[in-house]
Amino acid sequence: MTKIFEATIVSVGEQAPSMIMEANMLILFGMEAPADLADYCYKISNKDLSGSIRVGGQLVIDGRAYPITAVGSVVEQNLSALGHITIALDGSSEGSLPGTLHVAVDKMPELQENSIVQLFA
């Protein structure tokens, strides 16, 4: 697999960890996250995407791989432009919203400042 994206978590919104536990999702956003969303986001350092995100690829968080099961129609556009995607930790094979990336999880990720988020195709 080829790495197409890598970013470091630079800050963690106050409500971001509870989104993982309660809603089975996490939100990545670049440094310019709107104030009303910042509390729910993991802010990332980079938004440079060098390839296509596809089903069968992997989201890797701190070395732990999660298979990509569905990709919303604007995931790549939002990630490249804003550093923003919603990651649903539900393993769904059908995308729910255009900006949502779905992955299968066996253990919920525990992101923190300096966590590394990567995408592989």
Automatic annotation (TrEMBL):
Xref: PROSITE patterns: PTS_EIIA_TYPE_5 (PS51097)
A Pfam family this protein belongs to?
PTSIIA_gutA
One Gene Ontology cellular component term attached to this UniProt record is: cytoplasm
Which Gene3D superfamilies does the protein's record reference?
Phosphotransferase system, glucitol/sorbitol-specific IIA component (2.40.33.40)
Gene Ontology MF term list = kinase activity; protein-N(PI)-phosphohistidine-sugar phosphotransferase activity
* Signal sequence extent: none
Q: Which GO terms describe its biological process?
A: phosphoenolpyruvate-dependent sugar phosphotransferase system
InterPro entries in UniProt? PTS_IIA_glucitol/sorbitol-sp, PTS_IIA_glucitol/sorbitol_sf
What protein am I looking at? Answer: PTS glucitol/sorbitol transporter subunit IIA
Natural source organism: Streptococcus suivaginalis
